[in-house]
């Protein structure tokens, strides 16, 4: 496999500034990122889908993503699907609140007990979904429990103990490259890493099976329609030849 | 429609969830809309604007808008511009930090006293701008 960033779950919160449930979406996401599932989750500011670059729009194509929305307008889920890829899970705070019969939050900022209770419940629900998506044994069911128990349910190291600071994945290491296919510009996630991998394996562009090897790797991270395979294979080979030539020049200069 | 509504200024912070300056910008927006200039300012969900919601797009085109950004990507400004509006003023949290390097923001989920102080400095500057914009409309 190409050397790519570790597989984690992406959390996209709507952060809706105009309503208390939007604040809950952000507080719950941060709790998961910093305390409940640090190291297993990453985030991206939602407006970056529009303001950012290709690597930001590749986010949900690379990471399985949970959209956390404050209200049923589902901005996070819809924007993620519109600009990147359909989220694996869509969670709506107002719906979760009704399901759990919790009191509605009243304030967008400052002390609000109802908002805090709802944020905790939302964070627990999110953490469970993270575990489902990563097919892992859950870490302790809450950070408080983790501190008390000191071990995971599977007896492993207590990986929810350390609190880390949440950081945005903008300008992250998700490599993206575009190729021209039949006059269209196609953006492919992980392509530079795929090239580097095959180069390391000594796969020369003129070797038998290079096109198939390129397509096999590209398919892992990108949807490749069968009808486009032949044209894409040619485009990949051209780009790989350029990569090979560039790399040979760099090595020669060293 | 009331005069107050006619002269309403919309404050849009960047929604930054992964950077402490994003949290400072959001806090500054709330200080303006809830404490310093309630009634004549409001905020909108930037995520709705990102999604292209027509009602929100119309509001940012019809009212003077002030954006607050926490990082150089300037999501708030860019999203307002993409909606077909020109922000009446743009603020960056970093500019306040440059003038007040003694204020070390703690973290994204808890900006701490220094972060709150930075948010208040920024909020005061934004409030002055709100007054200026409302005077211009009279």
Commentary on this structure:
The complex is a heterodimer of chains A (254) and B (138). In chain A, helix 1 packs across helix 7 and helix 9 packs antiparallel against helix 10. Chain A is 48% helix and 11% strand. By secondary structure, chain A is of the alpha/beta class. Chain A is elongated and about 65 Å long. The two termini of chain A are 27 Å apart. A 4-stranded parallel β-sheet of chain A has the order 2-1-3-4, sandwiched between helices. A two-stranded antiparallel sheet of chain A has the order 5-6. The longest helix of chain A has 25 residues. With 138 residues, chain B is α/β, with parallel strands linked by helices. Chain B is built from 7 helices and 4 strands. In chain B, strands 2-1-3-4 form a 4-stranded parallel β-sheet, with helices on both faces. In chain B, strand 1, helix 2 and strand 2 form a beta-alpha-beta unit. In chain B, helix 2 packs across helix 7. Classes of the chains: A alpha/beta (254), B alpha/beta (138).
Question: Which features characterize this protein?
Answer:
heterodimer; A: 254 residues; alpha/beta; four-stranded parallel beta sheet; two-stranded antiparallel ribbon; 6 strands; elongated; B: 138 residues; 7 helices; 4 strands
